[in-house]
Structure formats: C-alpha cells, structure tokens
Design goal:
Layout lengths: L1 H76 L33 H11 L1 H4 L3 H13 L21 E4 L4 E4 L3 H13 L4 E5 L4 H17 L4 H8 L16 E6 L13 H9 L5 E3 L6 H4 L7 E4 L2 H9 L4 H4 L3
Helix pairs in contact: 1-2, 6-7
Amino acid sequence: MDGKRQMSYVRTGSKARQRQRYQMQRYRRQKLFLCLALLFFIVLAIRCLTRLYVLEDQVFGVEQKVQAADTAVGGVLDGQGHADGKNITAGHNNGHNGADGIIELAAKDTEQLSGGLEQAGNSGAAQLSENEIQEWKAIYGRNKELLILVNKEHSISREQEPAMRTICNGRLSSADCLYNDLTEMLSDAKKAGYEYWIASAYRSAERQQKLVDEDVRKFQAQGCSYEIALEKTYDYMMPAGYSEHQTGLALDILCSGNINMDDSQEEEPGNKWMKEHCQEYGFILRYPREKEGITGIRYEPWHFRYVGKEAAAWLTERNLTLEDVLPL
C-alpha cells in the first residue's frame, strides 16, 4: 500500500508542476502580447503626430504664398507705379524691404498665385505709350535670340541654347555672344578699381537637377518629407529646365572681396559700379528688389543677364524687366 500511495503522490506532483509550467507559459505569452500591442500604439501615435506636423507645415507654406501674391498684386492695384512707366513697382512702395515679402513662387503655385503674378507682370507694359511699345517690338525683333524669357512659367529646351564657349580660364562656360562685352566690362571695372569672381554661368538641365536633388536631401535630413523638402528648395532654386543659367546668358557675378551670395553684395562698391554701368555692356540686373512681385524671384544683386546693348539701355531707362515687356 505504501508503494502505491507513493506512486500516487509522484503522479499528483508531476501534474501540479505541469499545470504550473503551463500557467507560466500562458502568462509569458500574455505579457508578450501586451508589450507588442503597446509598441504598436506608440508607433501609431508617432505617425499621427508626424502627419499633423507635415500638414501644419504645408498649410503655413500655402499661407505664405497667398500673402506674397496678395502683396504683389496689391501694390499694382493700389496704383503704386509712377504714371510715366519709368519706375513701376509691385508692392515695395508700401515700405516692404529685405526679408519682408521675399518669397519666390514655387513650381506648383495655385491658380490664385498664378493670376496675381500675371497681373503684376503686365503692370510695366500697361504704362508704356504706343510709340514705346512699337520701339520695343522692333528691338525684340532685332535681338530675339538674346531675349529668351526663362522663369517658372517658361521653360527652355536644349534646342534653344546658344553656342557656348569657355570663360574664366576654362572653369565655366557661357554663351559665345556675350564674351566680348563681358571682357570689356570686366576690364573697365578693373580700371575703376573693382575685380570680380564669376560664381556661376551656364548650367545644363542635368546639373540643375543635381543641385535640386542635393538640397532636397539636406531638408529631408532635417526631418522634412520629400514634398516639403522640394517646396523649400524651390523657394530659392529653379527647377531643371526653368533656370536662366541654362541659356548661357546669365552670370552670377560676386565682388572679389566678398564672395558670399547674399544681400551683402549690394553694399559692395564693386556691385554698385556693376549695377550702374552694366547696361553699357548689354547686361541688366535680372531680379531687382522692386520687381520681386513681377519676376516672382527674390532680389539677387549678383545675378546679371545679357540681353544686348540695345535692349539693356531701353529696359534700364524705363526701369523694366523681361517679365514687363515680353508679353507684348
């Protein structure tokens, strides 16, 4: 009897240990499930917060663009331009300067923004007399190849690119047609005591796209989505195929003593000389401060565009830019 009782105790103890092991395994599975569920909800919450942040950033960007368009159009509708057509401005006569209202329109502008830019862009031409309009049409006919309009609404194809040649000892390339006038301008500037560094000239569409991609990646590294990073990049850089540099007629000219590509250039005596005399050699300051609402590009005191001596003198005398007159 004692042997049977002992065997019964052994079987009973074994079953108890099995139940205990089963309960422990069940507890561990429940604990693992709860941990996974908690992790899932944490990830879901992070994704929701990220989407809210991106949405807020997008809404803020749209508000900025609408405000910029309202400012640009408002300056024209309020009659801020002078009646003689020689000093037409869009919004800046209200006291806007520096960083106030300097927003370059992005490639995916809404219809409201596009309409505002169109109204502002036609303001200069609206102030011209019939004789001046005919004068411009004749100038355009004689210099059509130099007066290509390239901006975020007007692209350039490879077939439109002029013949190129190297400049700056082979470091850069530019349109061959501007070389003699550029050489003369820099030579005369040197006689006046000023020297320059040409930071950029011709850029192919492929090179422009590479620059865009590089800056998009920089913004993405800061936590921006691709769409937000691209929008931020287009605030100051043209899309491939829409850059004036692809014409070979645009030059970024910096003063040798200050090669920072920013508004500090306008304080340099060399930059003041260049803006005062460039039209004598066929160049214009392409993106003046008072024309931001018309060109859609923020002020760039270093960006000069070759249009030929005849067109440069005519545009400078009337304080007009290409967007003012090429719709004629």
